[in-house]
Amino acid sequence: MLKRVVPFAITLGVIAAFSWTLLFLYQKSQAKPLVFRTAKPRVMDIVKKAVAPGAIVPRKEVTIKSRVSGVLEKLEVEPGQAVKNGQRIAKIRIIPDVVSLNNAEARLAAAQISNDNALLEATRYDKLKSQGLVGETEYNQVKLNAELKRQELEAAEANLQLVKVGASKKSGAISNVVYSTVDGTVLDVPVKEGASIIEANNFNEGTTIASIADMNDLLFSGTVDESEVGKIREGMPVAITVGALGEQRFKGTLEYIAPKGVAKDGTIQFEVRARLELLPGVLLRANYSANADIILEKHDHVLAISENLVKYENDKPFVEVEKAPQVFEKRPVTLGLSDSIDVEVVTGIDANATLKVQDGTDVAPPPSPKSK
Questions:
Q1: Concatenated DSSP letters for 13-63?
Q2: Which domain CATH number covers 172?
C-alpha cells in the first residue's frame, strides 16, 4: 500500500508545481493596470518676475587719501568704526625728497641774503631821510623793496617747513594729518602703520588710507540679462534676498537701469540698481551677495495649478478631470498669469476638481500568486 501512495504523492506534487509555474507565468505576462496620480488646484499668489544676481553696496563710498607722501606713522581708525566729517584718521611722517629739500634750503639762504641786504639799504635810507637828503618817492621805494624781501624770506621758511614736516608755522596748516571728509562707517583700512604712502595728485591716484560709507543708505546693485531688460522699468517693486541671511527678504524699488549693456560670458548684461528698505535690528554688510526678484506682474489669491498638469491640443490648453475613480475627461481651460512653475486658471475648473497628473506614473503591483 505504501509503495502505491508514494509515487502518487510525488506525481501530484510535480503536477501542482507545474500548475503554479504556469499560473505565475500567465500573471506575469498580463498588462499591469495603470493607476494615475491626481492633484488638486489651489489658491495662491502668482508672481511673474525677473531675477537679477548682484550684491548689497552703499550708495556713496568715499576713499580717503593723503595729500603728502611719506610713511604711515599713526592710524586712528579701524574697520567698522563710525566717524564724523573732519575726524582725524591717520598721521603721515613725511620723508622729504632730497632734491626738494635742497632746493628749499637754497631758496631760504638766497631769501635771507636778499632780506639782510634790503634791511641794510632801508636803514641807510632812514638816516638819509632824517637828514633830508632823499626824496619821499625814492625812500618809499626802498622801504617797499625791504618789505618784499621780508615776505620772500617768510615764504622760503614756510616752504622749507612744509618740505620737512608737512606743516607751516605761520598758516597753521598741517598737511601730514589725514581727516575724514564724510560721516559714515569705516569699511576698509587697506594700509598698516609703517607702510609707505604716495600722495594723490594729477598723475597718481595715491594710496588709499580708508574707505568710508553711509551704511544707512544702501542699494542693491546687480545685472539683468538682455532678454529680461525690456520687461522692466524704473519704479518697479523689488524683493531682495540676501544669501547670508537665509530667507530674510527686503523690499526695494528699482531706480536705475543702465542704458548700455556689457558683454559677459557670451551674453549682454545690463546693470540695475534698487533702493533698499532696511529692517529694524537686521545688520547688513557691504558686498553681501544678493538676488533681486523684480516683480513684473502679480495676481493675488487666484486659482492655480502646476504647469505640468496642462496639456495642449491644436495649441489649445486642456486638463484631464476625474469624473469617476480613475476615469478622466478632457476639459478646456483658460489660463492667466504664469511664473513658469504654476499657472493661473481663469475658467474651466473650480477648486473642487481632481486632475490627472500624467499617464502611467504609478502602476499597481501584480497580485502575488498563492501557492497551493
A1: HHHHHHHHHHHHHHHHHSPPPEE--EE--EEEEEEEEEEEEEEEEES-EEE
A2: 2.40.50.100
What residue ranges of the chain have pLDDT lower than 70?
Answer: 1-9, 14, 18, 24-34, 96-98, 163-175, 359-372
Which triple of cell numbers denotes residue 203? Answer: 598723475
Residue pointed to by grid coordinates 606713522: 73
Report d(CA 126, CA 120) in Å as an integer.
10
Q: What is the model's pLDDT at position 361?
A: 45
Do 182 and 74 share a structural domain? yes
Are 249 and 195 part of one and the same domain? no
Residues in the chain: 372
Domain assignment present for residue 368? The answer is no
Contact (CB, 8 A) for 44 and 340 = no
In a domain, 162, yes or no: yes
Helix segments in the chain, DSSP class H: 2-29, 98-130, 136-165, 226-229
- Its domain, for residue 175, covers 61-212
Same domain, 305 and 248: no
DSSP 369: P
